[in-house]
Write a structure and sequence with these properties.
four-stranded antiparallel beta sheet; about 70% helix; MFS_dom; membrane; cell membrane; transport; transmembrane helix
């Protein structure tokens, strides 16, 4: 069994690594959780749908650059050390998040506002690209081989807990302020508060020592002088990197972002569930599902990592469509007889000669307040809500019944349960694929391409597909297809390695 010098202090190592990673994920997710408000503040208000897609694209940019962060900071981690590298990534992430809270609105400085936000998102993405590999490697190199999945699973909880924490801060701020105050300036508070969390996390991390395995290698002069060349220049190692991407991290990435980010986006932008209520639904589901990260991490030590991850992807691919059908049905007013006396709905669609959707218009007559709302979906502009004269209006928000709240929590919980299966074992799985001297670099790149490119782009791609087709279930085609492809590649071509000693080369 692998003997690690830091085993007796493993919980201190996990706390420090997890705290920093949690804060970085919190910083990253505030932007996604507040995407609707950000689209109003930093983009022109003339086309709300395009502004929202532009916001999602800006959010996605942070994911796209994560592989570059993995290369830059992965190399630094393999040459200089694990500890100091993820101290640097923490400061970069925290600083850029704090700065987003200070950027003036589009009304104040015009096009400079979205440009500055885009630059700060690039910094966030680069920093996060170097964070995860360092934290996972650091914990794994302190862990005994028969508990590696268990101990690294605590790192896996930080992404979900970071999202949960961001939702908690946003909801608390929203509750303490009225709607006008929150939309005017209160949305900035979660960004600004992050600086306090980063300072606390930085202090905890400075108390850590370097990974014992890396320290030993450095003392013996065996560290890699060119980890990029060793990782991607050698045919056998490059093959493992590619199989890790297309057979594990790609599918895990789309399952993760569908179950947490797309679920929230679907609740707010498709179902129009009220802001606080939709966030509470996600938060309750996350809280209930989070312990399963630890369960499946521990289970992977006994039965293997791969079969758990593949099963999570399979179940997700099979269940997504029926789950979202159930979710959508909870706010389908045309199916609720008790509300029919308040609503009258007319729907008209038009297509071109090729059978493609040109325009779909739905008129919703609200008899209770003599208001008529028109919702128009076009291939060019997506979904636009307007009054009967055609003037754009703000999104309609719906409050669902308590029964449907619990039903929606259950539907999101099931999705996050799939996330725990696909995500919990993957840190230990990736760490065991690569040797110590190039581990930080080799594992970071496939992880961040899978999560950053395939996973991070999921909400944006889904929104575009829905806007182009007029079918709000069309966005599910992407995650289902990616999960199936990854399942096939992973099942038939990716081999699992059970490594007793992480110092192997």
């Amino acid at each position: 069994m692998q003997k690690t010098h830091g085993t007796k202090n493993i919980w201190q190592v996990i706390l420090a690594s997890s705290a920093g990673t949690l804060i970085e994920w919190y910083d990253f997710y505030i932007f996604g959780s507040l995407s609707l408000i950000i689209s109003e503040k930093f983009f022109p208000a003339s086309n709300p749908t395009l502004a929202y897609i532009a916001t999602l694209a800006t959010f996605a940019v942070g994911f796209i650059v994560r592989p570059f962060g993995a290369i830059v900071f992965g190399r630094l981690g393999d040459v200089v050390g694990r500890k100091y590298t993820f101290l640097l990534t923490l400061l970069l992430m925290g600083g850029s998040t704090f700065a987003i809270g200070l950027v003036p609105s589009y009304e104040s400085i015009g096009v400079i506002a979205p440009i500055v936000v885009l630059i700060l998102r690039l910094v966030q993405g680069l920093a996060l690209g170097g964070e995860y590999g360092g934290a996972a490697t650091y914990v794994a190199e302190h862990s005994p081989s028969d508990q590696r999945g268990y101990f690294t699973s605590f790192i896996q909880t930080t992404a979900t807990l970071g999202l949960f924490l961001s939702l908690g801060v946003i909801l608390t701020t929203r509750t303490l302020l009225n709607a006008e105050q929150f939309e005017d300036w209160g949305w900035r508070i979660p960004f600004l508060l992050s600086v306090l969390l980063v300072i606390m996390s930085y202090y905890i991390r400075t108390k850590l020592e370097e990974s014992p395995l890396f320290a030993q290698m450095k003392a013996e002069g065996k560290t890699s002088k060119n980890p990029l060349k060793e990782s991607f220049g050698k045919k056998e190692n490059l093959r493992i990197v590619l199989l890790a991407l297309f057979g594990a991290t790609m599918g895990q990435g789309v399952v993760w972002y569908t179950g947490q980010f797309y679920a929230l986006s679907f609740l707010q932008t498709t179902m129009h569930v009220e802001f606080v209520q939709s966030n509470v639904i996600i938060a309750m589901a996350l809280l209930a599902a989070t312990p399963f990260f630890i369960y499946f991490g521990r289970l992977s030590d006994r039965i293997g990592r791969k079969k758990i991850m593949m099963m999570g992807m399979l179940l997700a691919a099979l269940a997504y469509y029926p789950i979202y059908r159930v979710m959508d049905h909870t706010v389908d007013v045309s199916q609720k007889e008790e509300l029919m006396n308040k609503f009258h709905i007319e729907s008209h669609s038009s297509k071109n000669d090729k059978g493609q959707l040109v325009e779909k218009t739905t008129r919703i007559h609200l008899y209770s307040d003599s208001t008529e709302v028109r919702e128009t979906t076009t291939a060019k502009d997506g979904v636009v809500l307007a009054d009967v004269s055609g003037k754009p209006i703000k999104d309609i928000q719906v409050k669902v019944s308590m029964f449907n709240v619990f039903l929606l929590v259950l539907m999101v919980f099931i999705q996050v349960f799939f996330v725990t299966m696909a995500y919990a074992p993957i840190a230990a799985f990736l760490v065991e694929l690569f040797p110590t001297r190039i581990r930080y670099t080799s594992m970071s790149l496939p992880y961040h391409i899978g999560n950053g490119i395939f996973g991070g782009l999921m909400p944006t791609i889904a929104a575009i597909m829905v806007a182009q087709t007029g079918n709000h279930f069309a966005g599910l085609i992407y995650p289902i297809a990616i999960a199936v492809i990854c399942l096939i590649v992973g099942t038939f071509f990716l081999k699992e390695r059970k490594v007793e000693d992480l110092t192997h080369d």
